[in-house]
Amino acid sequence: MSGAEKIDVTVTEIVAVNELVTRFKFERTDGGLLPTFSGGAHTVVEMKDGAITRMNPYSLMSDPMDQSAYTISVRRDDEGRGGSLFMHNNVSVGDKMVISYPVNLFSLDLRAKKQLFIAGGIGITPFLSQIKQMERLGGAWELHYACRNAALGSYVDELLSAHPYEAHVYYDDEKQAIALEELLNGQPVGTHVYVCGPKGMINWVRATTEKLGWPREAVHYEEFLAPQPGKPFEVKLAVSNKVIQVGEDESLLEAMERSGVDAPYLCRGGACGQCETRVIDYSGNFIHRDHWLEDDEHASGEKIMPCVSRFEGKTLVLDR
Amino acid sequence: MSKFEFPQSIRSRPVWGTLEPRAGKHHLMIADAQGAEAILDVATPELMTGAHIIFIAKGTDYGDKLRALNPAQYYEGPSYEAAASRIQRVLQDAKMSTQVYLSGTESLMGQAMRECTNAGIPYTAVQTEHRGSTARRMQCVHCKGITEDVAIDPFVCSHCGLNLFVRDHYSRRLAAYQGVCIDAEDPGNVPPSKGIYE
Predict the structure, then answer these.
(1) In this predicted model, what pLDDT tens digit does every residue of B71-127 receive, in sequence order?
(2) What 3-state DSSP class applies to A165?
(3) Is the pLDDT of residue A101 over 80?
(4) Domain coordinates of chain B in residue numbers?
(5) Residue A104: how many CA atoms within 13 Å on its side-chain side?
(6) DSSP-assigned beta bridge partners for residue A191
(7) DSSP class of residue A188?
(8) Dimethylamine monooxygenase subunit DmmA-like N-terminal domain spans which residues (chain B) (predicted)?
(9) CB under 8 Å to B24, separation ≥6 — which residues?
(10) Does pLDDT of A38 surpass 60?
(11) ipTM, 2 dp
(12) Which region, left, alpha or beta, applies to residue B60 given φ > 0 means left and ψ of -120 to 50 means alpha?
């Protein structure tokens, strides 16, 4: 079985944080302790939605040392493929669910002298666990958190009351914006910056740090890509000797799983590299959406990340 | 003729690069002796407006040429040890938009690199370029004493007097190559010394 090990859990609390965001609490169904994790880790939540099993990654926001329960916050995406809507509409307290062991693709570099967190919207969630970890370690950190408005600012009140000197909040509708260049310029040597939020924000931070000469090793970012729908296509899996159809609303990875092929995966969001698959033959165009492969690898037609990328054309043969 | 092509070796051995101008507001350049040539090669008027050059002359006369680059700050000191506290202070106050350029001997680059990593700069982000002497800063693995400017192999530890074999095994923490007793099994059986790269 691919992916991280699974844990059977029960939903023990559901809290509406605001109009768009709902928080879920999971405890082990067998009553045991959950594994500790490190700040920034995520879990993949399995959702049995009729005939479809959705598997979406969500950042763990609870204290990494708290083994009694995990909490995640899910932002409702009315335009998405349905994972977040399923969580919002179909999950109730007492439901049994399956989640994965924590996986961290956004961990803190503890060699840093200071951690600088930049969050946009629901991108706040990994920082909630990282802040708890930093508070436990006694390390220096600072948070700059941009959200649309006060009503949609998840956990703003908690952050500002617990960390009045470290947390800084910016509301778009009040025309407040992070003074990024000044902020980055003022950071002492040994600072690492972490950004989680919309693609535009991540690109903004990466471009600005590059311009200012920050070392690449000191710039960390996490962006989960949801697989986008697209035209159906056909794939031949050479190792499994199967020809499968990828539907409009499912990813190539999901189609392989539906066909009984045990394909590797971890993040299911184009970031971790686990599902990288070799292309044996193709005639058509790749729609690469991951940020794992380099540009030249995307152009080479030799590799594809089936969790988020698609294909349009006549033939696609994969080494799987 | 200050450039030297080091032979391929074990993974532990540092690999030095070639300095190139990088984006950044501040440019900290630390060099000794012929290392000045690498700074003269990389210097541009833009870099110099934010540059702090720390130069250890070791009897060379590059000082005037470096000063003529018109860096924002210039310091010339008699030895690395004399400059060390200044380097530490500069790094303590440095901002993230600082680029570090190290050039000269392996001893200078190794020790300045150690200060950089202690300050929290990833070692992969620090640029280096070897120029000048290929003599090494050696640690005796037995008495832990450091012998500077070792050009021959084997050599005699300047602290405990053991005959030491010059290894390519390097310690970033100590900023030194390791010297191991060459005649421990058969005291007195010491091959004649020759240049490390002969």
Answers:
(1) 999 999 999 999 999 999 999 999 999 999 999 999 999 999 999 999 999 999 999
(2) coil
(3) yes
(4) 26-130, 136-195
(5) 19
(6) A114
(7) B
(8) 9-124
(9) A212, A213, B50, B97, B98, B99
(10) yes
(11) 0.84
(12) beta
Tokens standing for residue B195: 């240049």
Put simply, the answer to whether A189 touches B94 (Cβ < 8 Å) is yes
Nearest-CB residue to B96 (from A111, A191, A211): A191
Q: Do A218 and B96 touch (CB under 8 A)?
A: yes
Contacts of B99 in chain A (CB under 8 A): 213
Is the CB of residue B113 less than 8 Å from the CB of residue B128?
yes
Rounded Cα gap, residues B31 and B80, in angstroms: 10
Token pair in block for residue B11: 């993974």
Contact B100, B121 (CB under 8 A): yes
Cβ count within 10 A of residue A7: 20
Length of chain A: 320
pLDDT tens digit string along A203-226?
Answer: 999 999 999 999 999 999 988 777
Under CATH, which number does the domain B26-130 receive?
A: 3.40.50.80
Is B122's CB within 8 Å of A215's CB? yes
Cα(A29)–Cα(A7) distance, integer angstroms: 9
Structure confidence by residue, pLDDT tens digits, B155-179: 999 999 999 999 999 999 999 999 9
What is the reported pLDDT for A224? Answer: 72
Q: How far is CA A284 from CA A275, A292, B81, in A?
A: 21, 21, 64
Residues 6+ apart with CB under 8 A from B110: B14, B137, B170, B172, B175, B176
Chain B's closest residue to A113, CA to CA, is: B120
pTM to 2 decimals? 0.87
Digit-coded pLDDT (tens) for A54-63? 889 999 999 9
Q: What is the mean pLDDT of residues A130-149?
A: 97
Q: Would you list which residues of chain B are within 8 Å, Cβ to Cβ, of chain A? A: 22-25, 91, 94-99, 119-122, 124-125
Residue A97: strand, helix, or coil = strand
